[in-house]
Amino acid sequence: MNSSAVFQTELAGNLTGLANKRSLLLRLIRAAQPITRTEIASRLEIDKSTVTDNVKPLIDAGILREDTLDSGGHGRKPRVLSFAGDRDYFIGVNLGVRRSQVGITTLTGEISDELDFETPKDVNAALGMVKDRIENIIAANPGNVLKTIGVSVPGMTDTDRSALIYAPNLDWRSVRVSDALQIDGVPIVVENDSTAAAMYEARMKIRHSSEGLMTDFILVRSGTGIGVGLVIGSEVYRGSGLTRGIAGEFGHMTIVAGGKQCVCGNRGCWERYASAAAAASLYLGDRPIRRGETLPRFVEIVAKAENGENRSRRTLEMIGDYLGIGIANVIMGIGIPRVVISGRLVYGWQFIEGPLREAIDRSIVGKTNGWSVEAGSPAGAALGGALEVAVESYLASV
Ligand SMILES: [Zn+2]
To answer: How far apart, in whole angstroms, are the C-alpha atoms of residue 93 and residue 63?
Structure first.
């Protein structure tokens, strides 16, 4: 039995047993709402009566609602499940290396009321801005209930997901994020940004596929740095024991011996060669920047490549090559052959994809069948990931 089949069996077992894996069922309803009980049963490969047993208390508790879908035709109209009401809401905070976002979502809706700002270099200033925004949101929504705040951070988190241990690109260390943002006892969950993005992409996959919930994939997020999130059996993997929260720090694996200096103190790290931010120095050919010259932004390099400029195209091809080399290493290490790329880098996908695939093909991974690499969201996964953390944490508690 392969790992996916094992998880499938475990999932069915858990759902059949008690409502302790109710969160999986809720996740599917959230991703695919409105959805019939029959479709839930089929996608989770469980009995319809098991769906009913799990769903009924949630309808009674006012968390879910069941409506008759007016399909316009004759005959029996299907009954569909969705989340009830928009009174409960969630705040997501994405603390990015360059820019940060704060936004709101509900269980039925999409992201709304998004604020985007340049991330202050000083951590207290950044958290102060975020807290002000949260207080404004609460004041503007008097009749509604803020259930959970999800915060995604560009670095390692502690085991109970309340603090940021180290964000190399911001040089922030030991930041008690949930203490700093605490308001009215609302639960706050702090998550690594790549893990959060992986949670977001996992839900997008559920939405756009007719398959079950079972997905194993590696998320590679490339923006200012590179982070890796792991989704195994549709759950994100955070490492175990003392390394919980550190799983997926692949951006700092050495890819060029004695290579470029990295902010982490080492040389030749993957993110110095394959992140969107690495494009500027690759574009300049590693010569120092001239007086009065500004570093080209990633989207500007993509725009030049689209206009046919050779140097931009070559830069993006080099990034694709380095990214592919690293991805092949990650696939070999983890043993999951499906990869989703997210982050700013996705804007240059048309130029990056070819060399990336060639690099994977050259590796031992390329000798196997069934590996896949696809582009995910260039931007939505940032705030979307933070909101996902908030909602998932809440749904796990109902
Ligand atoms: Zn490094």
So the answer is: 24
